Amino acid sequence: MFYKRSQYLVYQILQTGYLVNRGDFVRLVEDFYQRDTLTVAKELLGKLLVRKINGEELVCKIVETEAYLGADDKACHAYQNKRTSRTEAMFLPGGHAYVYLIYGMYNCLNVVSSKENRPEAVLIRAVEPLAGIDIMQQNRKVKNNKLINLTNGPGKLCQALNIDRNLNGYNLVTGQELFIIEHFQPTAFEIIADRRINVDYAEEDALKPWRFYIKGNPFVSRRAGI
């Protein structure tokens, strides 16, 4: 059980239409993901990303995201509806994982958003580790055990959570190994919007403020102006 909460609180959450009660927690369902991608990118902040490995639960709070808006976004892998073996998962309905490799060595986790055949997604750029930290540190295999550097980047968090391309196309709504749940004791936070990182090739789209992060959170990969 992640949180002990009152029946009234559960009722309030279920009324949003984006959540469903599953046992001892409430997880996001299709209607949450299959909306405007910029909205999904912002509302994923503060949610909990759960990775189950050999019965152990690794839990992180999402603190930074980037939105990629499909056919009209020059920074998106599926720009002009480019459909390849790599981008195929982006054409699935919102609520699936899109995992790809960068620099030939780092995996990146994206949450597919919007409707089927609209290749849009949200990159999970940074998370704050909450539970299973010892396992995350083992997975990273780094000498520096400074917690702040454990998951403050897309490649780092995938390594810490043992997320690779075997999870590409994974169903985040029904799957039991990787999913996202609602944080039942949220704290108020301010969202900062900024340019996405390492998309200079996207010409004018590189200037779009489609990166979102929780202001002041130390696990954010890069702050505005840096």
Gyration radius, in Å? 17 Å
Tally of individual helices: 5
User: What is the second-level CATH architecture?
Assistant: Roll
* Average pLDDT taken over every residue: 86
Major β-sheet annotation:
8 strands, antiparallel
The residue ranges in which pLDDT falls below 50 over 5 or more consecutive positions are 1-24
What structural class should be given to the helix and strand makeup?
alpha+beta
Q: Name the CATH superfamily classification.
A: Methylpurine-DNA glycosylase (MPG)
Which term fits the overall shape? globular
What is the share of helical residues? 10-25%
- The fraction of residues assigned to DSSP E strands is 25-35%
String of helices and strands: HEEHHEEEEEHHEEE
Quaternary structure type:
single chain
- CATH-assigned fold name: 3-methyladenine DNA Glycosylase, Chain A
Descriptive account of the structure:
There is one protein chain. The protein is an alpha+beta fold. The chain has one domain: 3-methyladenine DNA Glycosylase, Chain A (Roll). Helix content is 15%, strand content 29%. It has five helices and ten strands; from the N terminus they run H-E-E-H-H-E-E-E-E-E-H-H-E-E-E. Strands 3, 4, 5, 6, 7, 8, 9 and 10 form an eight-stranded antiparallel beta sheet that branches. A two-stranded antiparallel sheet has the order 1-2. A hairpin with a 2-residue loop joins strand 1 and strand 2 (25-28). The N and C termini lie far apart (39 Å). Residues 1-24 have low confidence and may be disordered.
